Amino acid sequence: MEIMTPRGPARADVDEGDDARLLLVLTHGSAGGVDAPDLLAVREAALGVGAAVARVTQAFRVAGARAPGSAERQDEAWLAVLGELRARWPGLPLVQGGRSNGARVACRTARAAGAVAVVALAFPLHPPGRPERSRAEELRGAGVDVLVVNGDRDPFGVPDAADATRLVVLPGEGHDLKKRPAEVGEVVADWLTRYLG
């Protein structure tokens, strides 16, 4: 489905079972798409525990841009998408998340969106080789429960366990989390069960 935002149209690929009890909205990183192996694995696992799942291609990507632009504009467009999706599933608890840059967006907007939790896949703690430019404050500022799933070989760093409600570090995984995506899906599905309405 296409959703108009203040930054142009975004697109949501929606999957739902017969009796959805939670809405999970996921998005991509700044360079990837919604068909990343970890996002697909999370979709499958979430459907299995009773979630409706929307994978959102953000407006900047639909417009053909290679970079998301300012955080303010990206967040504004994201909140518009969430408003439309929540109207389609009124009353369901919302968990939002994404991978990399999408995880940052989810953390920054969680309270404004009314989310009960965030799923942060491959949260980019800092630019590669620049640990002094930490983004940990985005995790701490989410204001809701945050699950972080990172690989121990991620050049963007691994957040501190104190900055998330739960941190899962997968051995041998890099930033793409593509070696064992089913494991990523299982971790997320287990986390989601606490929020099922």
From TrEMBL:
One of its GO terms (molecular function) is hydrolase activity. InterPro entries: AB_hydrolase_fold, KANL3/Tex30_Abhydrolase, NSL3/Tex30. Gene3D superfamilies: alpha/beta hydrolase. The keyword Hydrolase applies. Residues 22-179 form the KANL3/Tex30 alpha/beta hydrolase-like domain. PANTHER family: TESTIS DEVELOPMENT PROTEIN PRTD, TESTIS-EXPRESSED PROTEIN 30. It comes from Nonomuraea corallina. This is Alpha/beta hydrolase. The keyword Hydrolase applies. Keywords: Hydrolase.
